[in-house]
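User: I'll paste a sequence; please echo it back and then give the predicted structure.

Assistant: Echoing your sequence first, then the prediction.
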Amino acid sequence: MPLFGGFRIGRWFGFPIRIDYSWFLVAALVVWTFSWSEFPRRLPNYGQATYLAMGTAAALLFFLSVLLHELGHAVVARARGITVESITLFIFGGIAQARDEPKRPLDEFLLTAAGPLTSLLLAGIFHGGRLAAEAASAPPPITTVFGFLALLNFVLAVFNMIPGFPLDGGRIFRSIAWAATGDLVRATRWATWGGRLFGGALIALGILGLTRGDFLAGVWAGFIGWFLINAATTSYKHFELRQLLREIPVSRVMSPDPSQIDANLMLEQAISDYFMRGRQEAYPVQLDGVLIGVLELSRVAAVPVPLRATTHVSDVMRPTYELVAARPTDSLADVISRAEDGVMSLLVIEDRRVVGMLDLGEIGTWARRMSRLGLVSLDPPVGGTGVGSHHVKRSVGSPAEERA
């Protein structure tokens, strides 16, 4: 659920770790809250430089705790056979981006419960750190930071157990309702209402805090409430769209019998004869009648204009061993869940021959067209936001374990 784009900072336990640009906003706000409000109240009579050091250290350790919370989800998801693409820190916590949906209620229950349990474990560790620091007669700022982090992780675990989608508690509630009713759609709808009601309650508390003069608490409560309502609405929309795409075969959306490009053709001619004449953004590449790869518009665009007259198609194509192929009978949701990041077109193969091309970027447009024609509803229970092709690509078939 990236908001403003971001960047990758490394890998932990095999999972790519990313930071969304929106994280810097909340990081600055957290440091300010800790340094100018929380620690001066908890430990008076110290200089502002000390409070700033305490606030910065506590903020960094808190965000590390959030990352470990998400790693708890990701590790258990992997153990249950669910592929996790990445973990991203963003404006209100973190998100473990999974490629596919849990197949059973038990899988969702276990991978979701791992997050709050990790936070409880961290609360115990920081509490133990505080006791050890006190026993060693460490300076009060150190013991205060450890104690505060123990409290924060405990609150994070409890807060996430609120039974409202897409919080952990909402997903656990959904897994229980799913197991009891056997109806994932109904269970998701109930959990979504829980998320929206809880978000509304937080906004009401925020307004009440503002009227009583507690500006900081009121802003935080209102902001988090707004975020939860939006997250619940968006998550339900993505869920409903995934359900739709599970029923749609690739053959209904693919471009049949796509034109193929000869591997020895120069890029300049490929552009004039194919990309500027047809609607395809990717073309199968053949050599002596044998499929050897796919030429994508993005790869062609990356070649400087002066070099296109001397660069062969085979030099920039994506070779067959990097391709993820689909069959006409595969569902759109299954195909999207298998697609590699950055790949926007897939070959559709039947009986060892190319019968079509599937443009993943067009699936969002196609789904919206179905909705406008009244053939399917893509609206969440109340309200809604637009679904673009980017969200479809990264979210359909890739439910996110979203945390506030």
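DSSP finds 13 helices and twelve strands in the chain. The chain has a mean pLDDT of 83.
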